[in-house]
Specification:
This protein is of the alpha+beta class. 43% of the residues lie in helices and 13% in strands. The strands form five sheets. Strands 3-10-11-9-8 form a five-stranded antiparallel beta sheet. Helix 6 crosses helix 9, helix 9 runs antiparallel to helix 10 and helix 16 packs antiparallel against helix 17.
């Protein structure tokens, strides 16, 4: 790793400096022939980085961790986690590096983090590398999620390394450069708590308060206020996932951020046909992280955070438990409120309608979608047309048209706001068959399908001529969809 003076680039090392117990100084592996595949120019601008510089050899050196500012201190972060319910006390960045923090245009710090940069002391049996397809998947879907208004880590760039990587076959290697408000996770607190070091847990909590929830510092019990804030952030996040039909796939505690941002787009997918039991991860054999289970799992993960924070919540353990339980109860209430409000917006219900009016219509529609295996994204977008007096596009999607006509008549009688519906029901999402098509082409060296799909999903609510295929559901021959973590 070359340490050089780079133009107007500062990577602070706050986490590396403040948490030596949770950070191992490390360097990215050599890359024989780096080549920029995709660069997020708007995000680069927000970070004060010059796009032309990032395209240069020196810029790609920054994006891959090989040419860093002289004061940069790249580290592999330590954390623990429950993976599919089983606790592992030492996980950490097995193929990733935190390069440091950079100041965003909003004045707040952002982590700059690599994925696929090589083995670290946390790699266990893995090679620490990544390949083009999964790294472009994270770039594509994270930026699509951002455009949908879902809190998420962002993707700055993907660089091909020129190094072949052995998976089922030999595939071209790549590194993702991603950006987050921080990479502190529930698993970070589990790691600190497992060391039996209450002081470390306290310092980590103080870091989270300063970084994410500064208002909680003024609370009577700042650490309880921190926990409540994380509960609220995660309730809102998972409600947003459910509303857009997103299935994360690996909701392990090490993949749940304290900030409330979506992180780690491995075996994730968007639902095609509405199915509460939808599972897309090849390794989720029991359906633990199925679509319908995501709120339950999020609450379970937050209970693990509460366990880690227990000594900070109150000096009396029984009182600490009571405070944690009461705070955790807020998750279901906020999730339910956020989901119901979001579904009301999707159906264009105007303010003032009571739950006794809206809830039965929501439940009836979801039953029709489930029974008819109806495309989740298409039906809500088509209902915007139905609200304007053109019901046929939506009607054609529902096998039981008599039931739909009855439902639609009662819904139309409430005068739904079609324009408001179009602002929350996307025309374009990263549809699974289009994602696979784009990634297969990119792995073979053709990036045009990826760029066309990116153009659609990063402006998801604005329906445009020429993009009709990006609004269509999966073809009948696409079959059952399975995704993989890419390691």
């Amino acid at each position: 790793m070359d340490a050089v003076s780079l133009p107007a680039v500062t990577l602070s090392g706050h986490f590396a400096r403040d948490f030596p117990e949770m950070a191992i100084a490390w360097r990215a592996e050599d890359m024989p022939d780096p080549r920029l595949l995709v660069l997020n120019e708007p995000l680069a601008t927000e970070l004060g980085l010059d796009a032309d510089f990032l395209r240069s050899a020196e810029g790609m050196g920054l994006l891959t961790g090989h040419r860093l500012p002289v004061d940069a201190t790249p580290v592999a972060q330590a954390y623990a986690g429950h993976q599919f319910g089983w606790y592992a006390h030492r996980l950490g960045d097995g193929r990733a590096l935190l390069l440091g923090e950079i100041t965003h245009a909003d004045g707040m710090p952002r982590d700059v983090h690599l994925k696929g940069s090589g083995r670290t002391p946390f790699a266990r049996g893995g090679d620490g590398l990544a390949v083009v397809g999964p790294m472009l998947r994270e770039y594509l879907i994270s930026e699509g999620m951002h455009a949908l208004g879902v809190a998420t880590t962002r993707s700055l760039a993907v660089v091909a390394t020129g190094r072949p990587v052995q998976r089922d076959t030999v595939l071209p290697g790549a590194v993702l450069t991603r950006v987050a408000t921080s990479h502190v996770r529930v698993g970070s607190f589990q790691y600190a708590a497992a060391r039996g070091d209450v002081g470390l847990v306290r310092r980590l909590a103080d870091y989270a308060i300063t970084r994410h929830y500064p208002a909680t510092e003024r609370a009577e019990n700042p650490y309880l206020a921190l926990f409540r804030s994380v509960v609220g952030a995660q309730a809102s996040l998972v409600a947003r996932w459910m509303l857009v039909g997103f299935v994360h796939g690996v909701m392990n505690t090490d993949n749940m951020t304290i900030s409330g941002e979506t992180i780690d787009y491995g075996p994730c997918a968007f639902m095609d046909a509405f199915d509460p039991a939808a599972v897309y991860s090849s390794i989720d054999e029991t359906g633990r992280y199925a679509y319908r289970n995501q709120p339950v799992v999020a609450e379970w993960n937050l209970a693990r955070l509460a366990e880690s924070l227990m000594p900070l919540l109150h000096e009396d353990q029984e009182t600490a438990i009571q405070l944690a339980v009461e705070s955790l109860d807020d998750f279901r209430q906020q999730y339910s409120a956020d989901w119901a409000a979001g579904m009301n917006r999707k159906l264009g219900f105007r303010p003032g309608l009571g739950d006794e009016v809206t809830s039965p219509l929501v439940e009836e529609l979801l039953t029709l979608l489930r029974q008819g295996h109806v495309d989740y994204t298409s039906i809500f977008r088509s209902l915007g047309k139905a609200a304007r007096g053109r019901p046929e596009p939506a009607r054609q999607l529902i096998p039981d048209r008599t039931a739909f006509d009855d439902w639609a008549g009662r819904w139309r009688a409430l005068n739904p706001d079609a324009d408001a519906m179009d602002r929350v029901n996307p025309a374009y999402i990263p549809r699974n068959h289009l994602v696979e098509e784009a990634l297969a082409a990119a792995t073979g060296g053709d990036l045009e399908p990826l760029f066309r799909l990116m153009d659609a999903v990063t402006d998801p609510y604005n329906e445009r001529p020429g993009l009709e295929r990006y609004a269509m559901g999966a073809p009948d021959d696409f079959g059952a969809y399975r995704t993989f973590c890419g390691t």
